[in-house]
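User: Fold this; tokens only.

Assistant: Input:
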Amino acid sequence: TYALDAATGEMLWFAPMLSGSDVPPSVATIDGRPVAIAGPGESRDGGGDKTVYALDVETGRRRWTYRAWGGMDGAPTVADIDGDGQAEIVVTSLADASLYALRVEDGSLMWRYSIPETDACTHYKNNWCIPTGEKHYHTARAICKSFNSPLVVESDTDAGRFVIFGSNNGSLYILNGKTGDLVERVSLDGPIRGSPVVACLNGDESASLVATAGSTVVALNIANGVPDL
């Protein structure tokens, strides 16, 4: 990860990682100081450091690291996912088909949601996703991986907040932000490679969840923070 002077383009610092980064970092705050939350991708066989980094934006110094079980191809999302007034970090990973929720201040794990197997794949050692009939992991053929930056939606009831993300297996997952428990799974017709968004499409105050699934764009009505099926 590089930091450049916005006015001159001069490099301010460089933070080495074992794998190249495929997504831009996100910005959080620790003790009043801005930090960049970054994660590298992975090699074809799942290799790489598979680590989430919190880097001081002025110096590049590591504030903390968290070792995941897959590389990251979706930018981390910084948001209050449990309603306690403090921001957390949610980030998806590839090889282990998972979403991690981390505490901003020290990178400790709040919860992890692991995408379950499908008819087309089996999961082994830390939920690594392997197509049925194959013996080894290959990042290009991982069915349940996620390229998404998670979306955080607040319910207008006492249901709390939800974390929503999609997978290449064609499913949208809606999770309880406080616990990571699955609230709803929505099956769509095609891999969900782009991150879902919430938008008002009808000119009123009602919200819709918009996602791409293969070559199709899908808009779902939202009721109390959860897509209304």
